[in-house]
Amino acid sequence: MNKMEKDVRSAQRTQAIGVVMIFIIVILLMQLWLLTIASEEFLAGHRAMALPTFLASAGCLLVNLWLLRYVNKIDRDSGLE
Fold first, then answer.
1. d(Cα 54, Cα 57) in Å, to the nearest integer?
2. What's the sign of the alpha-carbon dihedral 57, 61, 67, 71?
3. CA pair distance 31, 44, nearest whole angstrom
4. DSSP state of 81
5. What are the φ and ψ backbone dihedral angles of 46, each rounded to 5 degrees?
6. Other beta carbons within 10 Å of 38
7. pLDDT tens digit sequence for 48-79
8. Residue 43: in which H helix or E strand, if any?
9. pLDDT at position 1
10. Spatial distance between the Cα atoms of 41 and 47, rounded to a whole number of angstroms
């Protein structure tokens, strides 16, 4: 593989990591919003709304962990060349 191909692959990896990091930030903000709603509802005694919002926040956490694992895989694979 010549230098130009390596540069293109590096640029593609950098772009992919940037896009995934933007998704992570958006999901993280949504998770914080949901966790705030769950906390407020729980403290107000409205447990019917607190549990679903907490579970949605936990789902956001799992999605973020999966995306971070993907970013880590991309970064790890780029060091092999």
1. 5
2. positive
3. 20
4. -
5. -95, 80
6. 20
7. 888 899 899 999 999 999 999 998 888 887 76
8. helix 3-43
9. 66
10. 7
Largest CA-CA distance found in the chain, in angstroms, rounded: 64
Spatial separation of the C-alpha atoms in residues 60 and 25, rounded to whole Å: 11
In this structure, what token pair is assigned to residue 67? Answer: 């995306």
CB-based contacts of 20, cutoff 8 Å, min separation 6:
67, 70, 71, 74
Residue 46 to residues 14, 22, 38, Cα–Cα distance (Å): 45, 33, 9
pTM of the shown model: 0.78
pLDDT at 74: 84
Q: Are 13 and 78 in contact (CB under 8 A)?
A: yes
Cα dihedral 68→58→35→26 (10° resolution): 30
Helix axis angle, 3-43 relative to 47-78, nearest 10°? 160
